[in-house]
Amino acid sequence: MNYHWDWMFFFQETDDGLKYYDWILSGLGWTTFVSLASLAVALILGSALGVMRTTPKRWLVGLGDAYVDLFRNVPLIVQLFMWFFVVPELVPEKLGLWMKQDLPYFVIAIVGLGLYTAARIAEQVKAGINSLSRGQRFAGLALGFTEWQTYRYVRLPMAYRIVLPALTSEAMNIFKNSAVTYAVGILELYFQYKQIIEKTSQVLEITIVVTMAYFILAFVMNRILAFVEARTRVPGLIVGQKGGK
Amino acid sequence: MSDFDFSVITQNWAFLAEGLRYTLQVTVTAMIGGILIGTVLALMRLSSIAPLQWFAAGYVNVFRSVPLVQVILAFYLIIPLVLQMITGKSTPIGAANSAYFTFTIFEAAYYSEIMRSGIQSIPKGQIAAGYALGFTYGQTMRHVVLPQAFRNMLPVLLTQTIILFQDVSLVYAIGATDFFGAADKITQRDLRPVEMYTTVAVVYFVICFTLSRLVKRLQSRIAIIR
């Protein structure tokens, strides 16, 4: 094989005075930041939607279902392009101009990725709530809790623990999906990967390094959530991917 | 909003349809290839031969922890290198062709996990019964286990295929002209992002929504086995 291996290129200077490994590290930083921020958006919105879909109110259920259908049936990259290029044209002109000029790119990317993932999290949260016996809600109501209080004190604390394994895999997915935000100009890990290939054509070295970087990110996320899972385990339950997809 | 210009879409419809056809071709190729390779991987993973288990586990874990866009780009660049190594001369294969290969290899990892849980959902007694009837390993798998595993997992396999259909849009990374890529190229030329991207989103939505409803119906129809 006449491929020219050169592992030392990571320590070479780039045009901007940094070294290639600095690019990788900054890519890692952006990937982590965008992913965690999107995860926060997705968890909050996804939980709200998941709860909505289990309430007795028909219109709330319909709204939640519609959201999930909409956001699950359009590819992520198309959704991101919609947020970047279509939404600013449809909102009032002043707001659109502000979105195009002043709003930092990563905010739109985080919102886009977050709303996309929220649909998936809503599915898990709904499955978790539905896996509880109805008696739990009735017991809450019988104790004088309001509907909301049965969620807050009875059902959600159980539901989250039950679906934690499924949420773990969504949390790992979000790191992979954050790579798609490169398409709208976020300087995350994959973006830097592409950049470095264009500059150096050391395809194999950089592929190995970036693949390992994604591995490590996923692994760390997995360990953190496994720790949370162990700490919050409900005694007496065989917690598995109950009611998942 | 008032100046939504439908003529951009009607004028470029042929080009968009061509892109959609490519998307469908990649989806179908990767589905068939992926399920075949995935089934072999699942059998390897469940076999009693340790090196086969390691290989299958390694394959599945590597592809499942790497972003698809990265794999698309990496394969696009690495396949010609490998081909050159084998044939000795440089053979550029192009973005459009490399995607067929990439998606088949990549999706095999996901299909393999589905097939594995399908195989594992079959009671052990059935395998024992197969052996008791004098079937070899291959016959037991082919006539007893795999048909049931496949049937049980059909809705999940199809759901994965819908995801695959959406994921083909990521060939944007290597500039291939799939459905989304076609719309993007027209946008670069005509500068009508609102019409083009909205059309793409709506078409994707209609196709995927319809298919996922059909899968749901199929699911309730074949659930009667148990």
Automatic annotation (TrEMBL), chain B:
InterPro entries: AA_ABC_transptr_permease_3TM, ArtM/GltK/GlnP/TcyL/YhdX-like, MetI-like, MetI-like_sf. Keywords: Cell membrane, Membrane, Transmembrane, Transmembrane helix, Transport. Pfam families: BPD_transp_1. It is found in: Cell inner membrane; Cell membrane. Gene3D superfamilies: MetI-like (1.10.3720.10). The keyword Protein transport does not apply. This is Amino acid ABC transporter permease. It comes from Aromatoleum evansii.
